[in-house]
Amino acid sequence: MAAQISDVSGKSFDYIIIGGGTAGLTVANRLVEDPFKSVLVLEAGEANLDDPKILLGGGFGSIFGDEKYDWAFTTLPQKYANNRRMALPRGKGLGGSSAVNFYVWCKPPAADIDAWEELGNPGWNWEAHQKYALRAEEFSAASEEQLEHYAHMHNAEFRGKNGAIKTTPPGKTLQVSKMLLDTLQKQGVPLLEDPYGGNVTGCWIAASSLDRKNQWNRSYAATAYYIPNKDKPNFTVLTEAFGARVLFDTEKSGDDLVATGVEFVHKGKRYIAHATKEVICSAGALKSPQILELSGIGRRDVLEKIGVPVKVELPGVGENLQDHTMVGISYELDPKVAHETVDLFRNPEQAKEQLRLRDLDQDNAHRIGVSGFSYIPLQISSPNAVQNIIDGVTKHIEEQKKNGKLPPGLAEQYDIQLRMLQDRSLPDIELIAFPAHLTPLTAPEKDKPYLTVLCVIQHPFSRGWVHAKNNDPLDQPDIDGRVFENPYDLEIFLESAKFAKRIAETEPMKSGCIREIDPGASAKTDDELKEYLKNACSTCFHACGSASMLPRDKNGVVDPKLRVYGTKNLRVADLSVAPMEIAAHTQAAAYAIAEQLADILLEKI
Asked: 455-482 burial, b for 16+ CB within 10 Å, e for fewer?
């Protein structure tokens, strides 16, 4: 039920979940299936239910920066990216980031998930990940009309049938997506039948978390897991409740702390709720470390700096932060070709017309999704540069190992990354056909259509951190992604951008695009293009690793049961536990992590 403070303050629940986002609501959904288990979810944001800014498709990023929906984090100045501060949008409200993302639904290569198990986490492998991702999903295949426009292929074995998250190819398969995929095939990138079975190397049309049976509205954690359960008497959700810290019993269980509740802030006042079984922190990769630190769990120097007594010294809290780095190469499209892009929403009259068509359940631009994707190894995109990059980054890492500059556990991650880099069956970069102008250095012109080819590095070698800046739970943490700290990330990024520019000279893209907008003529040499990358790049909003599931002596924060080291009953369930970044947009992985933890809590595995 939607709770009042009187329903929560001083009350006891079996489970308290901090964060009513993608993972938090998924775990809660499984727990409340048992009517004898009581669950409290504390969500810092508002409910934001039935909100067209969330539900309607096509508004990609339009609510970023609006603090009703977005935490609106920013990084510290990025030393290796011309000291720029970068925006880090994160969903705030029921559903978390699943309420504000670009609703892309894809899965990683099997090797990426098997790497988690290799790092010391038995049971966290591709077979298990696929099982739990499928549990979350109900896939609807393309319609006959869509198949006439493009040959959407899929393998039913790799798609979920009975999950709560509705997925489907977007209602419009755009000409720009088809154009990019056709061009990539001429450059040696294979067209995949189905990228959802553990092999993503190639190009394909992605599914989106859209509900085709409900006007193509967004399907997300709130519609899937909160609304169907909201009237259950054992399910309590309090919004505008900021998790401040986890409380512990003064008596330990052996050597471990016992979590007894959560202190939270609601409308300016502090309250306490009690937990009799477990506390689960699901506040996301940028907030969960802060909550752990305010609870006395983390690096001693960080805790002493913010004035929090050390309860469990865990140096890995907030460390090992990873994210995809993204940049756009934008093109003005030929108006003689019938391109449809979300640029049209910049025109108020066209935006009004699309809404009218939607209300009539007719074809409209709110059905547009980001659908043209490709995951590419350097051996295909950059055959002349790949060996130099492999040799260079290998030497760089070996020097770091010899000099003792790597923190515990990172050498093992790097060994896996180097192996992946040498494997031509695994992707290093991603190219996306984004149906609009999406580069920050120039403004789009009125009523012109654009294509932005987004270039994304998949397995960055740089590692950042996120830490509480003080002991106020309402303050943003300090975040330093250390983007391009490892110089070979920039070299790989450069190759992705050069490949994107090269394919624009290949048909059918060559005829479909009139001119390159950004970076344009200002970036002819490699050094000039690198400057553009530093000035125009952003994160891809896929942060992970800041509470890594690793052995404790390898800077791990949680064990394979997602239990925080040094505690008996405090868990973390969100992307912060992923020890290495994956070659995928991370929405499906967040659901899968939550589904797997639910089985752990219910002792099904």
From this structure: bbbbbbbbbbbbbbeeeebeebbbbbbb
**What are the catalytic residues?**
542, 585
Which residues make beta-bridge pairs with 203?
Answer: 191, 374
8 Å CB contact between 558 and 577? yes
Amino acid at 496: S
Q: Is 478 helix (H, G, I), strand (E, B) or coil?
A: strand
Where do the DSSP E strands lie in 148-218?
A: 165-167, 202-205, 207-208, 210-211, 217-218
What does the DSSP 8-state code read for residue 569? S
Tell me the pLDDT tens digit for each residue of 127-186.
999 999 999 999 999 888 777 777 778 999 999 999 999 999 998 878 899 999 999 999
Q: Which neighbouring-strand residues pair with 434?
A: 452
Residue type (1 letter), 383: P
Q: What is the Cα–Cα distance from 88 to 457, expressed in whole angstroms?
A: 17
Binding-site positions: 101-104
Residue 28 tokens, joined: 């809660």
Binding residues for FAD: 101-104
Phi-psi region of 411 (alpha: psi -120 to 50; beta: other; left: phi over 0): alpha
What tokens were used for 5? 């403070």
Give the pLDDT confidence score for residue 180 in this predicted structure.
96
Give the model confidence (pLDDT) of 546-580 as tens digits.
Answer: 999 999 999 999 999 999 999 999 999 999 999 99
Closest Cα partner for 590 from 49, 52, 101, 47? Answer: 101
Residue-by-residue DSSP string for 360-407: TT-S-GGGB---EEEEE-HHHH-TTTHHHHHHHHHHHHHHHHHTT-SP
Q: For 431, list phi and psi in degrees, rounded to 5.
A: -120, 135
| Element of type H or E holding 479 | strand 478-480
Structural domains of the chain, with CATH: 1-52+59-140+212-321+466-483+542-605 (3.50.50.60), 175-208+325-335+368-457+485-536 (3.30.560.10)
Instruction: Please calculate the CA angle 100-592-71 and round it to the nearest 5 degrees.
Output: 25
Give the burial string for 527-560 (b: 16+ CB within 10 Å, else e): eebbebbbebbbbbbbbbbbbbbbbbebbbbbbb
Q: Which residue in 496, 402, 533 sits closest to 82, CA to CA? A: 533
Is 333 in a helix, a strand, or coil?
A: strand
pTM beyond 0.85: the answer is yes
Token pair of 317 as six digits: 């809290």
